[in-house]
Fold:
Amino acid sequence: MLFTPMTIGNLELKNRIVMSPMCMYSCTSEDGKVMNWHKMHYSSRAVGQVGLIIVEASAVTEQGRISPKDLGIWSDDHIAGLRELVGLTHEHNGKIGIQLAHAGRKSEVEGPIIAPSAVAFNDKYRTPLEMTIEQVEETIQSFGDAAVRAYEAGFDVIEIHAAHGYLINEFLSPLSNHREDQYGGDRERRYHFLERIINTIRLSWKGPLFVRISAAEYHPEGNTLDDITYYSERMKKQGVDLIDCSSGGVVPASLDVFPGYQVQYAEHIRKQVGIATGAVGIITDPDQANEILIHNQADLIFLGRELLRDPYWARRAAKQLNYSIIAPEQYDRGWIS
Structure:
């Protein structure tokens, strides 16, 4: 199953292996532009036969970066470098997406930071300013503008970052959203920010659209799995193609992690909502990844740290699963040894 192609909308992936978006904090000029590191980092995974590569969280506003060294997509000046990343990936028969993000109250850039409510993540973070309606509108439009730039750069997939305690997750969660207007209160109103972002992106983006969520908040007063299922149902109705199921990050929490600890969320949402899901979180062994797919627990396998350790994990997986994949011509003489 791991090497079975999958079609999502108008896109065919050659296998079910996805490089999970992981921040590289490598923009040394702090202008959000693609550096040589990014070109080498992402293209090496395309050479390694990863089916879909998702570029790290890329900030839709300069203020919305997690750190000053983050990639950006807030300006047309970013398009040329991002287009080069796309070209390098396509050159090796891979597909590539980009994660659109805003850090919200977890931003570490200089100057004021914003969030749905003026509540700090913890005592080590600054207290954000509560967003005005005007700032909410501007931020929604920033996601739409970023989607236009992603299209112009040639990306195959857009993923919206609505997880890990960043801005959209902050709106979704009652732990961080204490607003009393149309963007806060019950879960329907807390969903409104993401709802409008999806609608705005869909005005210009007709390709596959993923959303990364935190399916568990590890707090008794946070969103329940029932809430997350409700959000997923709403996303499906809006034309989202896949839910990338992670967890945590909206408030400090101690997690009990183990191999595949988040697969349960991908399986639940897939079955309850009838939408494609991605499984992520300590998935390291090819047999483990294959079993998740065989048992219909998810549709795609998102690998993070394992692809940092081994850009050629797909080759190792194919060998372990007795499956033959085509090698880059330049590597053919050493691929199967």
Summary: The longest strand covers residues 52-59. The first helix runs from residue 36 to 47. The CA atoms of residues 183 and 189 lie 5 Å apart.
